[in-house]
Amino acid sequence: MIISGAVIAQKLLADGVEIDDNVSCELPSIESETGEIKGAGILGPISLPVTGQIGSLTFKVNVRAINKNVASLAKPGKQNLELRFVRDVIAANGNMVPVGAKIFLTAVSKKHDSGKVENNSTMDGSVEFEVIRYRQVIDGVETLLIDKQNSIYKINGVDYMQQVTALL
Fold first, then answer.
1. Which of 6, 86, 87, 129 lies at a 20 to 30 A Cα distance from 50?
2. Predicted TM-score of the model (pTM)
3. What does the alpha-carbon distance between residue 155 and residue 55 come to, in Å, rounded to a whole number?
């Protein structure tokens, strides 16, 4: 058993350029689209996930202030984002070890909030993205891959869309 601790360091890159004043990043929630089944033989409607239909994936970057690199996040079109972070983990033997993770996103900017201007305060802006491709690598192992354009939905190496694409 392992026990995950706090994130101890992070870095965000957009198209290979580090984003300054990055405070935090909110990863997308993965929610399946559902379809309602109703009719004879069941006791009322059932809302079931539709295989491979993933709802909107939103990635949000919270920043301390606007600057040149943060402003570039608002540009139109596809961007390649890479979030790197390290967190403390208590291993099964009781030792505390740092574990690295990387999140790779292909995304399009959809909202840019410059924040506020107030004396003796940070601006606290944010940028939101619509994610087209989401890849998660933990300690060097790919644990999640959602590629909406190529109909790939992999968790721990198992592609849950493989049968569907094979039938097409």
1. 129
2. 0.90
3. 17
